[in-house]
Please model this.
Amino acid sequence: MANMIRDDDGVSNASTNDHLHDLIEREIARNPSRRSMLKSGASLGLLGIFGSALSACGGGDAAPAPGTIGFKAISTSSGDAIVVPEGYTADVMYRWGDPILANAPAFKGDASETWVEQEQQAGDNHDGINFFPYPGTDGNSRGILAMNHEYINPEYIHNAANFNKPEVPDNTKKQLAAHGVSVIEVQRNSAGKWEYVKNSPYNRRITGYTPITISGPAAGNDLLKTSADASGKEVLGTLNNCGAGQTPWGTYITCEENFNGYFGTDAPGWTANTLQNRYGVSAAGFGYGWHKGDPRFDLNVNPNEPNRHGWVVEIDPYAPSSKPKKRTALGRFKHENAECVLSKTNKAVVYTGCDERNEYLYKFVSTGTYDPANKASGTDLLDSGTLYVARFDAGTVTGDNQGTGVWLPLVHGQNGLTAENGFANQAEVLIKARQAADRVGATMMDRPEWVAANRTKAGEVFLACTNNNRRGSTPASSNMVNGSTTAGSARPAMDEANPRAVNNWGHIIRINETGADAAATAFNWDIFVIAGNPALEGAKKGSSNIDASNTFNSPDGIQVDPEGRLWIQTDGSYANTGDFLNQGNNQMLVADIATKKITRFLVGPAGCEVTGVCWTPDGRTMFINIQHPGEVGSHPNAPAAYVAAASNAKDAWVNANPTAFSKWPDGPNGGRPRSATVVIRKNDGGVIGT
Ligand code: FEO
Ligand code: CA
Ligand code: CA
Model:
C-alpha cells in the first residue's frame, strides 16, 4: 500500500556500522570455501537451479558467473519515466484497464467504465506477481502471470460524475471490481517483445466479490458466519492483495493486507470490540465509504465480515474455473507476501509478515509433505500444519550471525493460548493470530514487508522491515502513515533486530534456519543492510554498504532471483529532500548476497511504488509492477494550484486534473496515470542483472 511519510525527526541510537572489508572477512569466517572468490572480488553465487543454463548465456563470449552483477549503476531521478541501466529495455505490458476478456472494452482513459467493464479489464494498483510456465513449453517465452491488484486510487478510478459517491452501489462495485487478482497468458512475440494474450482461456479476473471457499481449521467457526453465509465457509472476494508467492505445486498464493480499511459504519454509538480494535477495524475505516454502497461492509450490519478477510488465498492459475481458497491455517493478519519453500523433508513452509508498525513475522509449516513427482500432493497441503511467530534474541553467536531466534508455535492449549485467555479453540487462535502472537512473546518488528527465500542456499530467507517511527522512548514528532491504523499503539524499545528508534529508512534482516532446514524451530539472524542516507549524520546514514550511489529508503518488495541475487524494491518517500535527500523516486536495487554490495538498477515514474518481481525460469525476462504512478504523497513537484487547494478539496482537484502528477505510462494524451506491469530484458538476451 502506498506509504506516505511526513517529516519525522527523532533520536536514534548509533547503529553498528560494518565496513565492507569486515563484511567480507565475516563471510569468509562463515563460509571459508568462499575465501578465494571473495578475496578476488568475484561475487560468485551458488549455482542455482538454472545454473546449467550458464553456458548458453547471451552477452558475449565470456559468460558471467551466476549471481554476478554486471551492469552500470544508474542515478536517482525525480522524473516521470522508468529508467534502467544501459543495455536494458523496459516495456510496459499490462496496464490498469487493459482488456483481457472477450467482450472487454479498451481502456477509455476518462474513467467512465462501468463495474461490468472494469471486471473484464486489468485491476488497479498492481502488486505481487508470479510467473507460471505455459504447459508443454520451455516456459521461457510463454507463460501465465498471476498478479495482485491491491487497492484503488479514489481520485483516478471515477470520472467527475461518480467521484466520491460511494453511496451509489455501482460505484462501490466498480471499486471492488478493480481489486483482487489478474491471471493472464503472456508470450514473447517474434520481435522479442512480451505481450499479454487477450481472451486466452487462462485469463481471469478475481475481484472483491468473487466467491471463495474458506478452508482449513477456522472454516465454519462462528466468528466467520454472517447473515449471507450461515456456514462460515464461503466468502465473497479477496481484498487488498499485496504481495504474493508461488507454491512448488504451481499455485499462486495471494495475501490480504490492509483489509480493515474497507469496513465502516454510520450507525450512531457503534464501537469496535476487542478483536476489531486489535485489527484496526473502525467506524471511519480508510474513508472508502463502501458501507454506504454495500451493507456487507457495514460493521453494524455485518460485524463478522472483517473476520473473513486478512487471509492468504490460494489460486490455481492453470485451472481457470477452479475456486480460490482462503487458507486459514496460515493465520489472519495483514499479510504482506507469502514465500513458500520446501523443508528438508518436503513439508511446505510459508513465511509471511504482518505489515504494520510493531507487528510480527510468522511461518507456517505443513503437517503433510509434498511429493515433487506428484503435483496433486500439494492440494490442500496448506490446510493443516503449525503456525509459528518469530522471536528475535540478542546476539550471542560469532561470525555473521548477530543473534539467535526461535519460532514460537501458535497452538491452542500451549503457551497460554487457552479458552480462559480468550482462545476457545485453534480456529480462534488463527482468527486472532495477532493476539495469540502478543501472548507468546513474539518480537515487534519495524513493519515486516516481503520475505524472500534464497533458493540457492537452503534455510536462508530475507525480511524487509520497511520503516517504523513508533519505537523507542522518544515520541516521534509526527506520524508515519502506512494506510493502517494505530491498533498496536505500544512503543517498544529498540532491540538488536530493530536498532533505530525512528527508522525512516528501513532495514533488511537475513535469517538462516538451524540445520539449513526451513522447518526448524530456531534460527540465526543478522542485519543485511540498514538503509539510510549518507547525506545525514550518525545512524541516519545506515550501514556501511549504503553510500551515495545506492541510497534508498523503505525496502518493501524483495525477492532472490534464480541465480541468487537479492532484488530490493522501495515504497517510501520520494520527496527528495530532508531525510530523503538525493533518494529520488521509488526504485529497485540489487544486492550481491555474498558481499552485501548494493547497486541501483531501476527508478520508477513520479509518485509510484515499485513492487512485485518475478522471472522466467531462465532469468532472462523480469516482470515488475509499477504501482500508483501519480500518487500525490510526497511529490516534490506538486502543482501550485494543488498546493493551494483546501485539504478536503485536494482529491477533487486531482480528479479534475488527472495528469497533473504523472502522465505515465501513456503520455499527455493518455487521460490518467495507470499502474502497470513492466517487462525488463537485457538487449543482448542475457540474464537480468549481469
Ligand atoms: Fe501492501 Fe505492506 O505493502
Ligand atoms: Ca508492500
Ligand atoms: Ca510499503
Summary: The pocket of calcium ion (ligand 2) is lined by residues 242-243, 336, 449, 556-557, 571, 611 (CB under 6 Å). The chain has one domain: 20-682. Residues 20-682 form one domain.
